[in-house]
Amino acid sequence: MAEAQILWFRQDLRLSDHRALRAAAHAGPIAPVYVLDDETPGAWRTGAAARWWLHHSLARLAEALAARGSRLILLRGRPEIVLPALARTLGDAHVHATEQFEPASKAQAHAVGLRLPLTLHPGQTLADPSAVLTGQGGRYKVFSPFWRALQQQRPPPAPRPEPAHLTMAANAPPGERLEDWDLLPTHPDWAADWHKEWQPGEAGAHTALIAFAEIVHGYHEGRNLPATARTSRLSPHLHLGELSPAQVWHATQAAAGDAAEPYLREIAWRDFALGILDQYPHSPDAPMRAPFAHFPHRHAPADLQAWQHGRTGYPIVDAGMRQLWATGWMHNRVRMIASSFLVKHLLIDWREGERWFWNTLVDADLANNALGWQWIMGSGTDSQPFIRIFEPVTQGRRHDPDGDYVRRWVPELASLPASVIHAPWEASPLELQAAGVRLGDTYPRRIVDHPAARARALAAFAGLKSGR
User: 290-461 maps to which CATH number?
Assistant: First the structure.
């Protein structure tokens, strides 16, 4: 009789194009298991919004497994403890899992591998980030040459279909109940309406991919217009592996050919971010450029709270932060504007913003989140210069010229004309009165003036460079 195989689900909550699943099912009856680890010291535990998504994704995965004659075992604790206990229950077992590159995930796999036979399979990335090397055999730290080198390894292997039937391992324990994990927010239930925005799970991921494939040819022009539905919104599905990057690659390229390349670069950026995190495992907690460790950040709790709740007085920033709270997601162009505002206009530590995004984004991804914030700060290996400071009004007028994005998420400004909706302080008293806007009452006044904030940020950076 074939030995039982443990299929350890991690950030790969799907059945199609799943190499670890195929290998485990080929070797013998399987025990599919997901381990919720809230105990490993020093790990970035899944944020609140992502836990909402995880709950629903696990429920859909359990349904999909049941439809194929199997079931999902839910266990809680440190993987190196609970997986060996499961293996003993099964009468010893081999573990199959998808290789991951986050520091805690690598440490978990190493610890499990010391106690059980473990095979790691590819699938989280287009290519193993450690295998995309420079001509001298080193790792890339800048995206553009990484992208060129990655193209030598494309396309990724064609996706494989999901299995029609799975044989469940005998003696598999029942595991825990998903409802007992308390993954859903309750006080307040700020995710109550998210089901209107999202369909977590593999089926929802494929629905979203099919929809995006129909518009991917216009992605390059539309990705910077937050009022339009021209982005993929696939990031939360990719984060938990409800889709493989190979599936996204092949579907979008089949739909748009060369016109899909601007979007494929974004999928490659995900690989790049994981590669940077692999090289700089402390990058979520510390700047990658040493001088920035001494940057004179401000401790300004009131300003931080105004930013978090979309009350800065700058409509494009406030619209983005309110979209984030209402939906668990923010348009990427607006993420850059809002992030820049926090670290440069307010001089607040980028790690405060990183933590807020970690807890409020359904697509909160450790590598992308850390790299994105360090890119804005100028402290990463491939970053914009700190002295590039986004002017919120200019950015709003450029990327939301008619003000439709602001009208949706900052409804108290909805009746202002487009000419002043991104700078309501420039509106005439008659325009404000006609729109029902009272600055400082129905909508906050600016918490900082752009020219003064820019000058303060540049002075802080100049002091950093001079060592003052």
Answer: 1.10.579.10
